[in-house]
Task: inverse folding
């Protein structure tokens, strides 16, 4: 995935450093069901440097993580001393290589946004395959609102995330350059897709999932912890949903 190989150091963290760590990841782990993951096998699909995977170990889950970036996985393995026992694998989330019906849960946090429409649908099908019957998938992505003109990330001025349309489009979704600022004002640049809420949810249902809960955590004034994060708050930052394998 373009960006992660060359800028993996940005994600080398053991403490909250980006807006996703303050509101996205804690909310997503809660959505999976804190008490429910204890001693259960959970796959973090697109685990990156393992930050969410380590949160799941904190909930006593048995965690596997896969990612297509070797550089991100190297950092995850280095940090595993804080949360031993995570099984990491170099694999694309559309074809993980795990046997079917293996996991109680699949989490995918900040990952589908980087994938084109057909890859998102293939990723749903792969998650469905590796989940046990009645297994749960939780998805978290940057909220589609943030790609509409007039949103804080599309306007001039500072914000924790900034978006710029790159002029490319595929099956109704557009490609943007995303700048993501950490607590020290450092910048991570990557390409993301502005998939709509309908696209995310319909794709999940078409893959066979039953939707259970949707969340839209908002930025609050207390979250604006660095001058580079700007002054706007009160809008949804992440779209998150939990669904089960019927
Ligand atoms: C923002 S990071 C999130 C990492 C992790 N989920 C977390 O919460 O800390 C996104 C990660 O998704 C990975 N990724 C994106 N698309 C992928 C794909 N199709 N297959 C495997 N990994 C993917 C990238 O390599 C990157 O490490």
Result:
């Amino acid at each position: 995935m373009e960006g992660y190989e060359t800028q993996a150091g940005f994600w080398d963290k053991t403490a909250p450093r980006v807006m996703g760590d303050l509101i996205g990841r804690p909310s997503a782990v809660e959505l999976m069901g804190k008490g429910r993951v204890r001693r259960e096998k959970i796959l973090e699909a697109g685990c990156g440097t393992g930050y969410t995977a380590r949160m799941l170990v904190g909930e006593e889950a048995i965690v596997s993580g896969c990612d297509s970036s070797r550089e991100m996985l190297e950092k995850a393995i280095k940090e595993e001393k804080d949360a031993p026992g995570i099984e990491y694998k170099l694999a694309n989330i559309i074809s993980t290589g795990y046997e079917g019906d293996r996991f109680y849960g699949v989490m995918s946090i900040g990952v589908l946004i980087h994938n084109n429409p057909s890859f998102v649908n293939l990723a749903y099908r792969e998650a469905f395959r590796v989940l046990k019957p009645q297994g749960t998938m939780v998805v978290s992505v940057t909220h589609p609102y943030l790609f509409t003109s007039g949103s804080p990330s599309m306007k001039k001025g500072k914000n924790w995330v900034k978006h710029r349309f790159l002029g490319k489009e595929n099956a109704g979704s557009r490609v943007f350059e995303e700048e993501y600022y950490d607590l020290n004002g450092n910048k991570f640049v990557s390409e993301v897709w502005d998939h709509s809420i309908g696209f995310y949810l319909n794709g999940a249902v078409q893959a066979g999932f039953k939707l259970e809960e949707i969340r839209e955590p908002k930025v609050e004034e207390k979250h604006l912890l660095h001058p580079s994060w700007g002054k706007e708050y009160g809008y949804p930052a992440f779209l998150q949903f939990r669904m089960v394998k019927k």
Helices lie at 19-32, 51-58, 70-79, 117-130, 197-206.
